[in-house]
Every structure is written in C-alpha cells, then in structure tokens.
Amino acid sequence: MQKLGDFKLPHFFNYPPYFTLQPVRDTREKQVQLWKDLILDYCRTQKIFVIGLEEDFALFSNPVIERSLSHEAREAFLSALVSEGRAEWLDKGHRKCLILWHRVQDWADIIFRFVKDNGLEDSVMTVEEIRSGIESRGTELHGIDRTILMRALRVLEQKGKLAIFKGTSADDEGVKFSM
Amino acid sequence: MRRRPGIGGLQTAAAARDQYRLVGENVAKIRTDMMKEQLATFRTQLEEFARKHKNDIRKNPAFRSQFHEMCAKVGVDPLASNKGFWAELLGIGDFYYELGVQIVEICLATRPHNGGLINLQELCILLRRRKSDREAISEDDCLRAISKLKVLGSGFEVISVGKKKLVRSVPTELNKDHNEILELAQAQGFVTVEEVERRLSWTSGRAIDTLDTLLDEGLAMIDDGHRDGKRRYWFPCVSSNSTPVADT
C-alpha cells in the first residue's frame, strides 16, 4: 500500500477515476464521501489546519498513477466538508479552507479538559502560551491553528468559563480561566 | 410370433403379451430394488464417510468441494435443509448460510463502489479477510452459497464475462453489448470509446450509448485525467485492488 510519510493511503487513491468528478449522482456521492474521510484523516494525523486550493497539497495529486484533482474537484470535496461543518472557507474566493477535524465545540471541550488536567482553573494564560507553551506540549492543543483556537475560546467565553482580554502587545491576547 | 388364424389365435396372442409384460415388470422391479439397495448402501457409506471426515470437510475447502461432488452424484444435497441429518451431522448447512449472509453483506457494502457487480475472486478475498483464518473458503464454496441465495429471488447471480466470474447483486440485466465491453475492460481495467469502436467494430453511437448505460448503472467510472486527454471508462468490478472497504 502506498504511503505518505507514515500515513497509509486508502486503495481508492490509486484508482484513477477517483481523481475525476463523477457525473452520476450515486457514484459521485460515494466518491465525495471517500475524499471527505481521507482529507479529515490526513489533516488530523498530520496536524494540518489550512488547505490552500492553489497550493501543492499531498492529497491533491498522486504521481504514482499520474493523476491530480482539478480545481473544480478540490472545491467540490472541500465544499462538502464545509456543508457538514467540518471545514470553513477563509475567503470569499474559496482559495483557502480551514479544516475542522474537531468541530469548534469539540476543540472547546479539549481546552476545558486541558485546563482541568493542568489545574489552571483560575489562571491566566496568553493565547500564544496555549498554542506553544510547556503545558500544552504533547496535547492536541499544541500547534493548533490560531483562528480555530480563538473560536473555541469564544465558545467557552460565551458560557462564562473564561474571559478574553487584550494583552500588553497588540497582537497577543490573554485568557483568564474561571472554570 | 407366428400368426395363427381364428379367435383362439388372437386370444393366445393377447395372453402371451400379458405374460411378457408381467415378466418385464418383474425384471424392472428387481432392477430398481437392486438399484435402490445399492444407493442406500452408498448413502450409508457416504454418511459414515462424512462422519469420519467431518473435520476435513469443515476445514479443507478442496476436500469439501470433492465431497459435494460425490453427494451430487448420488442425489444427496447436504444443503437442502438445515434440519436434516446432514446439517446436524456436519453443521454444513450453517456454514453456507453464514457464508451467504456475509456475501450479501459484502455485496451491499461494495455496491456504491462497484454498482453491484463484483469479481468473484475479490469477493473471496474480502470474505477471507472477515473470517478468522481457521476456516478457509474457496471459490467453489462461494458459488454454492450464492446458488442458495437464489431462492431469495433477490437477483443474486453469477455471470461469466470472458475468463472472469462476476457476482451480480442488482437486478440490472446486462445485455450482450454490456458483456462485451466488460470483457474488453478486463485487460487493463478500463476502455476508451475509440478502443471499443476499433476492437468490437461498433459505430461510435453504439459504443457511447452502451458506456453511458454502464455509467448510469454505477458500473463504470470516468477518468479524464490521463495525459493523452482521452476519457477512460473504468470498471471497478473487473479491476482488483480498487475496493475501498479494506477492513470491514
């Protein structure tokens, strides 16, 4: 079986017609389903948060069978993820896509657990610390995309679990947990 | 018989015919009785054989297939009923019913991908992957299980296309044109319109029509990604290694 790094690629990735958008509805639904699963799986294991449609992305072409996805196909698969709440377009032109292998709500739960596990219930952290600090090392939060993290924090803020405030530097924000 | 004149002659002739018939019937009866007796002996011995080699029949697919052949020759169908002596003795009925259920499951699971037509070889591979390895399954076993599925009237059928056997789980009727294309596709897993026209000497309308039908039935997939720019029609049912359901 073909591999990308340590990621095992599914069989269909080596079957050329899966790289052409299928015209028949049932066949296409199956095709879209397989690609959706593959994209989510791959992004989760490789910790990829943003896919650029016009950039080189490992899943968009398979040199072994000399096939690559057309722009239309890329957009179709990602749009399918968007419609399920597993992705979001970052721009109107649909050139960049945010991949939510955990939904925003799930990320909020992960933050909640992280805070509990580390006894940070009443602490203050900067957003940068959550992303790259010592506490989050080895957890899923380490290296998380900033946009997603901010969304998840807002979810918690709305529930009164924390407060977000402007930090000393203009581009960094702080979080006061109160769980 | 020499003909003698008068009513007496006719009566004698009739009586003689009756006698002959009686003798004939007797001989036939004795023959059938003997035959029945022989068959009965054979059956008992077959049963004894089955009892003795129970484990071999269960575990060894080649042995199992030979055993079935032997049974068929003497008119015994170990699969006819699940309550009969054979089923109790061998549990062989259960074996095939179980296999049948698994075949149905695999056919359903792969249907979105192959349109309800699956290569027998591939079906076997998927079956073996599901079973624990203590039980080996041969293509012969699959065929037997599928033949039992026919009574369900759900359109399970084995069709031969070229050298390959395909298992059909959808009621789609494949006509001769479809079959010819499937056969052609076996070489590379795909065909192009051009190839169909050339190899089968069809008009382009006929080729495109047939391919469109196969596409609509979900049996084919298009591929526009090749360098030469020619559209390829792939057939998941004839190419191995294309089934996405790896571990079910």
UniProtKB/TrEMBL annotation, chain A:
<dbReference type="GO" id="GO:0043328">
    <property type="term" value="P:protein transport to vacuole involved in ubiquitin-dependent protein catabolic process via the multivesicular body sorting pathway"/>
</dbReference>
<dbReference type="GO" id="GO:0005198">
    <property type="term" value="F:structural molecule activity"/>
</dbReference>
<keyword id="KW-0653">Protein transport</keyword>
<keyword id="KW-0813">Transport</keyword>
<comment type="similarity">
    <text>Belongs to the VPS25 family.</text>
</comment>
<dbReference type="InterPro" id="IPR014041">
    <property type="entry name" value="ESCRT-II_cplx_Vps25-sub_N"/>
</dbReference>
<dbReference type="Pfam" id="PF05871">
    <property type="entry name" value="ESCRT-II"/>
</dbReference>
<protein>
    <recommendedName>
        <fullName>ESCRT-II complex subunit VPS25</fullName>
    </recommendedName>
</protein>
<dbReference type="GO" id="GO:0016236">
    <property type="term" value="P:macroautophagy"/>
</dbReference>
<dbReference type="GO" id="GO:0042803">
    <property type="term" value="F:protein homodimerization activity"/>
</dbReference>
<dbReference type="InterPro" id="IPR036390">
    <property type="entry name" value="WH_DNA-bd_sf"/>
</dbReference>
<dbReference type="InterPro" id="IPR008570">
    <property type="entry name" value="ESCRT-II_cplx_Vps25-sub"/>
</dbReference>
<dbReference type="InterPro" id="IPR036388">
    <property type="entry name" value="WH-like_DNA-bd_sf"/>
</dbReference>
<dbReference type="GO" id="GO:0000814">
    <property type="term" value="C:ESCRT II complex"/>
</dbReference>
Automatic annotation (TrEMBL), chain B:
<dbReference type="InterPro" id="IPR016689">
    <property type="entry name" value="ESCRT-2_cplx_Snf8"/>
</dbReference>
<dbReference type="GO" id="GO:0043328">
    <property type="term" value="P:protein transport to vacuole involved in ubiquitin-dependent protein catabolic process via the multivesicular body sorting pathway"/>
</dbReference>
<dbReference type="InterPro" id="IPR036390">
    <property type="entry name" value="WH_DNA-bd_sf"/>
</dbReference>
<dbReference type="InterPro" id="IPR036388">
    <property type="entry name" value="WH-like_DNA-bd_sf"/>
</dbReference>
<comment type="function">
    <text>Component of the endosomal sorting complex required for transport II (ESCRT-II), which is required for multivesicular body (MVB) formation and sorting of endosomal cargo proteins into MVBs.</text>
</comment>
<dbReference type="GO" id="GO:0000814">
    <property type="term" value="C:ESCRT II complex"/>
</dbReference>
<comment type="subunit">
    <text>Component of the endosomal sorting complex required for transport II (ESCRT-II).</text>
</comment>
<dbReference type="InterPro" id="IPR040608">
    <property type="entry name" value="Snf8/Vps36"/>
</dbReference>
<comment type="similarity">
    <text>Belongs to the SNF8 family.</text>
</comment>
<keyword id="KW-0653">Protein transport</keyword>
<keyword id="KW-0813">Transport</keyword>
<dbReference type="Pfam" id="PF04157">
    <property type="entry name" value="EAP30"/>
</dbReference>
<protein>
    <recommendedName>
        <fullName>Vacuolar protein sorting-associated protein</fullName>
    </recommendedName>
</protein>
